[in-house]
Structures are given as C-alpha cells and as structure tokens.
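Dear Dr. H.,

I hope your travels went smoothly. While you were away I took the liberty of generating a structure for the chain from your last submission, since the lab meeting agenda had it listed for discussion. I wanted you to have the full record in hand beforehand rather than looking at slides cold. The sequence, exactly as received, is reproduced here:
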Amino acid sequence: QVQLVESGGGLVQAGGSLRLSCAASGSIVSINAMGWYRQAPGKQRVLVAYITSSGTTKYADSVKGRFTISGDNAKKTMYLQMNSLKPEDTAVYYCNALGTWWGQGTQVTVSS
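The corresponding predicted structure, in token form, is as follows:
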C-alpha cells in the first residue's frame, strides 16, 4: 500500500513560479518510477514529468525548459519546480507512483 500527498498548489500570475511536493509513505522505499500528471477541466489526465531511481527524467514537450522534477529519497518526497508559468498550465496536478498509486491532487491556477 502506498499513500501520496501533494501540496504546494495555488494561484499565481503568469510568469510566476510554484513548487509542488509529493510526500510518499507506505511501501515505497525510494523515489522510483514516479511522475506528475495534470488534468485541466474537460480534458484527459496527461503526463507532465517522470523520474526513475537512476535520476532519469522525462518531460512533456509543453513544459520542457520550464519545469524540473526531482526527488529526495531520504524524505520520500518528489518535487515539481514550475517556472515561467502560463495560463495553459492551469490544472489539477496529481502525483503517481509505479503507475498505480495516485495522490488526491493539488490545484494550480495561473492567471493572465
């Protein structure tokens, strides 16, 4: 069993920054095969960024160069640093582990 709790969302103006956190507990021993997804109103949930235990990362084209995913194994916490935010980044952001476990989501709203 794995529990994921996201935090750090909020309202920010275009061009601003936010850092999301995903704290993991339960049967997770390290940050591995974890990712951030987002779902905008009326749209499907899509992958934003992904990280493996070796530190390999993958980003959606729409966020490359603006978002950075990272993990802290000691804290069992994954982060998403979001810079140069745009109104189209507005969505509920979800943390995922091992393709199976989901957090409750955190709202990110970017005003123009």
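Two observations you may find useful: The chain has a mean pLDDT of 95. The chain is about 0% helix and 55% strand.

With kind regards,
E. W.
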